[in-house]
Amino acid sequence: MIYNVLWTGGWDSTYRVLNLVLDQGATIQPYYVNDPVRPSTEMEKKTIEKIKRLVVELDPSKEGHIKETIEIRKEDIPQNEEITALYHKLANSKWRLGDQYDWLPRYVHSSGIEKLELSIHNGDKAREIIIQDVVKVEDGNDSYYVLKEAVSMQEFKIFKDFRFPLLDITKLQMEENAKQRGYAHIMEETWFCHTPRKDGKSCGLCNPCKYAMEEGLGRRVTTPSTIDKLQYKAFKVRRKLKKIFN
């Protein structure tokens, strides 16, 4: 069996990759979405390749267990009015939902991928949305959640083509598990910041940086200067304009 995993090079998805490959001896097919308006794209791709090398250095028998990454251009994902309408209903309700929950379901639907894994964890805001509408599946030494057949809101159907293996675990629990299993040093190579500074450090201002601090991993986040804050505000304005005019 090959596991289809959305891998960003970040803490959560990397933990799942390492858990599958090093702990379970599984083979994974990683997927990565190229987002033209996110400055961290190249850093994320370099991180993924570095982690692949570190896995083989740690356990040479795992060479080939991580297949070549399938890269998707975000702008090439087909439109789907039904999925987008469901997404907007959720995004405009009491939950704040990132636009990845529009284009990711559209991609999976169009490509026919068998249950792409999303690394939504205990502490992730998206977990609050789906936790009452998923059911746990025990699969040998592995377990994950999938959407229930009968959902409480039709809008939740945008999650039907995904699996959620990390809903029960926090970032700090991942860290502790990685220490016990001997791959904490690989976890330290993960990347999370969406707007890295020119010196290669995290910005300390984007949402992933904020979430890392909120969830106990503040040691990995750079404290931003006044100039950093001004540059980040300017970036957000440019990004908003780019989305409008593209």
From TrEMBL:
It comes from the Bacteria. It comes from Pontibacillus halophilus JSM 076056 = DSM 19796. This is 7-cyano-7-deazaguanine synthase. InterPro entries: QueC, Rossmann-like_a/b/a_fold.
